[in-house]
Design a protein that fits this description.
alpha+beta; 4 helices; 32% strand; globular
């Protein structure tokens, strides 16, 4: 399994549209929902800079992602054009693989 992490800085006036399109249940996830190997997308917003986001796409393989992008070229191009209008900066940070599952431990006594 791979995760593609991208960073975006979104214009203040476009934040709502961006979150709708790229957040849970948004257009980005819907474009690839039926693609073999697509596991989902997570959108994170920076707690210090409300215009900065990370998007994490999860796929079984990079080849499946590339095939899906090619097969859905028109839909991808449309979303990409909207994103270009909404963003001040964007960068694909890389393709990562999960080494191990994380464990979240409960706090003791509210500490």
């Amino acid at each position: 399994m791979i995760e593609i992490i991208s960073e975006f800085v979104i214009k203040e006036e476009a934040r709502g549209r961006f979150e709708l399109a790229y957040g849970p249940g948004g257009a980005w996830g819907q474009v690839f929902a039926r693609s073999p190997g697509f596991r989902g997308v997570t959108l994170l917003r920076d707690t210090q800079d409300r215009r900065r986001y990370l998007m994490i796409e999860v796929w079984d393989t990079e080849a499946q992602r590339e095939r899906a992008l090619a097969e859905r070229r028109a839909e991808y191009a449309s979303l990409s054009a909207a994103l270009a209008e909404w963003s001040e900066a964007r960068a694909e940070l890389g393709v990562f693989t999960i080494l191990a599952q994380a464990t979240v431990r409960p706090t003791r006594g509210g500490r």
